[in-house]
Design brief:
Belongs to the DNA photolyase family. Its cofactor is (6R)-5,10-methylene-5,6,7,8-tetrahydrofolate; FAD. It catalyses: cyclobutadipyrimidine (in DNA) = 2 pyrimidine residues (in DNA). Pfam families: DNA_photolyase, FAD_binding_7. Its EC number is 4.1.99.3. α11 crosses α16, α14 packs across α16 and α15 packs antiparallel against α16. The longest helix has 20 residues. The chain starts with a strand and ends with a helix. A 5-stranded parallel β-sheet has the order 3-2-1-4-5, sandwiched between helices. The chain has 3 domains: 126 residues, Rossmann fold, CATH 3.40.50; 119 residues, Serine Threonine Protein Phosphatase 5, Tetratricopeptide repeat (Alpha Horseshoe), CATH 1.25.40.80; 169 residues, DNA Cyclobutane Dipyrimidine Photolyase, subunit A, domain 3, CATH 1.10.579. It contains 20 helices and 5 strands. The chain is globular, with a radius of gyration of 24 Å. With 470 residues, it is mainly α. Bound molecules: flavin-adenine dinucleotide (FAD). Flavin-adenine dinucleotide (FAD) binds next to α9, α11, α14 and α16.
Length: 470
C-alpha cells in the first residue's frame, strides 16, 4: 500500500514520527511538500524565511534521493493537491506533524475531516514540542500564564529517550508533475541574501553540525556567555528548530548523553539550556491557548496605551539609523544575517516600544519579514514580553538603557565595531555614546541620536502611568 508523508515544518528524516509510522504500515511512501502560503492567514513566511525554506527543501530532497526517493513539490490548495495525489497514486493514508498557528490548526482540522470522509486515513503527530500544549495545565486545569510553574511542571515530564532513526531507504511510487524547486520562487529576485548565505547552512545536516559545535564549544559556559552578543555563546539553532530540521527531543537526548559521558568534574550543566527550550514550549502553549495574541495584547489593560504613530521613526529603526549604537548594530545584524542575538533583540524591542513608543506589532511584523527564525509563537512571546503586555512579561517600567547595556554586555565594543563599520576606529568609551564628540559624528557619518534616551524613558513611564489610571 501507499502513503503520503506531508512534510511541513519538519524538514528532517531522523526523529520523524510521521515518516516512521508511515514506513511501518506502508510499502510505498510519497514524500510531499505543498507550498501554500495563502493558507497561513496573515502570517505567510517573510522574505528571510522563504530564503531558508528554499535551501532546506533542497537539502531534504538530496537526503531523500540518497535513500532512493525524492521530494514531490506542489503548490496551491493543500486539500486539492492531496486529493489529486491520492487519486494518482492510490494512496490510502496521509501522515503529518501538527503545527500550532491558529490558521494552520483550522486548515488541518478541515483537511483531516475531509480526508476521513473520503475513506482516507489521516494521521497527525507531535514532532515539534516536548509536550503538546493541551497536555499540560495548572492545578485548576487552566493554561499556564507564568513561566516558572509551567517549566517546573514540564521539566518533570521530559525524558531523554533515544530519538527515532532516519529510514535507511524508501520506496516511492512514480508520480509525474512535481514542480522544480525554483518554480516556488522562494529566493529574492534582488540578491540581498549573501550575508545569510555566509552565516547559515539550512537543513538537517547543518542543524546537527551546529549542535555539535555548540556542545563542544559553548554548552559548558552557556549560562555566562549567552548574554554576550560578540561571542558565539548560544546555539544559533533557532531557525533549524523553527523549520523542524532538528527536534527538541534530539537536542535533549544529545545533551544528556554528553553530560553523562563526561567525568563528574567536567560535566556541563545542561539545565540553563533546557530552560530556554522551555521558553519555546511556553510560547507554543500560549499561542495555542491564546490564539489572538499575535496581534492583540495578552494583557487587555494595554489596549488603552497611548502608542505614537510615526512612519519615519519606524523606518530609522528598521534601517539601523537611530544613532544609538547597540540598537543600530542589532538591526544591521538582523538585516545582514537574518538573525539577532537575544539580548540585543530585547534592547531593540525596548527602544521601539518605549523610547519611540511605537506599537509592538510594528516590531513583530518587521522581525517576521527579516528573521530566518521568524516563529509566530516565539516572536509573539518575545514582543509582548518586552512591551510589558504579555503573559509573565517584564514590567513596562523596566526600560532597557541601550548605553549601559552595551557597556555591560559588549564591554570591549567588539559587537558594535563589527556591525557599525563607520565607528570601527572610535575609541572607548566614546563608541558607546558617539554623540559626545560632534567631530566623530561628522567624520564617520554616523547619525546623531534620533531621541534622547533619558527623556523618552520618562515620557514612556508617564504614558504608562496614564494607562494605569485609566
Ligand atoms: P539559544 O540561546 O541557543 O536557545 C536555544 C533555543 O531555545 C532557541 O533556538 C529557541 O528555540 C529557544 N529560545 C531561546 N530563548 C527563547 C525565548 N526567549 N523565547 C522562546 N524561545 C526561546 N525566537 C525565535 O525562534 N523566533 C522568533 O521569531 C523570535 N522573536 C523574538 C522577538 C523578540 C522581541 C525577542 C526578545 C526574542 C525573540 N525570540 C525569537 C527568542 C530568542 O531571541 C531566540 O530564540 C534566540 O535568540 C535564538 O538564538 P539561539 O538559537 O542561539 O538561542
Amino acid at each position: 500500500s501507499t502513503a503520503i508523508v506531508w512534510f511541513r515544518r519538519d524538514l528532517r528524516l531522523a526523529d520523524h514520527p510521521a515518516l516512521d509510522a508511515a514506513c511501518s504500515a506502508h510499502e510505498h511512501i510519497l514524500p510531499l511538500y505543498i507550498h501554500a502560503p495563502q493558507e497561513d492567514g496573515p502570517w505567510a513566511p517573510g522574505g528571510a524565511s522563504r530564503w531558508w525554506l528554499h535551501h532546506s527543501l533542497s537539502s531534504l530532497d538530496t537526503q531523500l534521493r540518497e535513500r532512493g526517493s525524492a521530494l514531490h513539490l506542489a503548490q496551491g490548495d493543500s486539500l486539492s493537491t492531496l486529493r489529486d495525489l491520492i487519486d494518482r497514486t492510490g494512496a490510502s493514508a496521509v501522515y503529518w506533524h501538527r503545527q500550532y498557528e491558529p490558521a494552520v490548526i483550522t486548515r488541518d482540522s478541515a483537511i483531516k475531516a475531509a480526508l476521513r470522509e473520503q475513506g482516507i486515513e489521516a494521521h497527525s503527530f507531535n514532532a515539534a514540542l516536548w509536550c503538546e500544549p493541551w497536555q499540560i495545565e495548572t492545578k485548576q486545569q487552566a493554561p499556564y500564564g507564568v513561566f516558572t510553574p509551567f517549566w517546573r511542571n514540564l521539566r518533570t515530564r521530559l525524558d531523554a529517550a533515544r530519538p527515532l532513526a532516519a529510514p535507511a531507504s524508501l520506496r516511492s511510487p512514480a508520480v509525474d508533475g512535481g514542480l522544480p524547486l525554483d518554480a516556488l520562487r522562494l529566493l529574492p529576485s534582488i540578491r540581498w541574501d549573501t550575508g545569510m548565505q555566509d552565516a547559515w547552512q539550512p537543513g538537517e545536516q547543518g542543524a546537527q553540525e551546529l549542535l555539535e559545535i555548540f556542545i563542544d564549544d559553548a554548552l559548558g559556559d552557556y549560562a555566562q556567555a549567552r548574554d554576550l552578543p560578540a561571542r558565539h555563546g548560544t546555539s544559533r539553532l533557532s531557525p533549524h528548530l523553527h523549520f523542524g530540521e532538528i527536534s527538541p527531543r534530539q537536542i535533549h537526548h544529545e545533551l544528556a548523553e554528553r553530560a553523562s559521558a563526561a567525568s563528574a568534574r567536567r560535566r556541563p550543566d545542561i539545565e540553563p539550556y533546557l530552560r530556554e527550550l522551555g521558553w519555546r514550549e511556553f510560547a507554543h502553549h500560549l499561542l495555542y491557548h491564546f490564539p489572538h495574541t499575535p496581534t492583540e495584547n495578552y494583557n487587555e489593560k494595554f489596549n488603552g496605551f497611548a502608542w505614537t504613530d510615526d512612519a519615519a521613526a519606524l523606518e530609522r529603526w528598521q534601517r539601523g539609523q537611530t544613532g544609538i549604537p547597540l540598537v543600530d548594530a542589532g538591526m544591521r545584524e538582523l538585516w545582514h544575517t537574518g538573525w539577532m542575538h537575544n539580548r540585543v533583540r530585547m534592547i531593540v524591542a525596548s527602544f521601539l516600544t518605549k523610547n519611540l513608543r511605537l506599537h509592538w506589532r510594528h516590531g513583530a511584523r518587521w522581525f517576521w519579514d527579516t528573521l530566518v527564525d521568524a516563529d509566530l509563537a516565539n516572536n509573539t512571546l518575545g514582543w509582548q514580553w518586552v512591551a510589558g503586555s504579555g503573559a509573565d512579561a517584564a514590567p513596562y517600567f523596566r526600560v532597557f538603557n541601550p548605553v549601559t547595556q552595551a557597556q555591560k554586555f559588549d564591554p570591549q565594543g567588539q559587537y558594535l565595531r563589527r556591525w557599525l563599520p563607520e565607528l570601527a576606529s572610535a575609541p572607548l568609551p566614546l563608541l558607546f555614546e558617539p554623540w559626545k564628540d560632534p567631530a566623530l559624528l561628522r567624520r564617520s557619518g554616523y547619525p546623531a541620536p534620533m531621541v534622547d534616551v533619558g527623556e523618552t524613558r520618562l515620557a514612556a513611564l508617564d504614558a504608562w502611568q496614564r494607562m494605569r489610571n485609566g
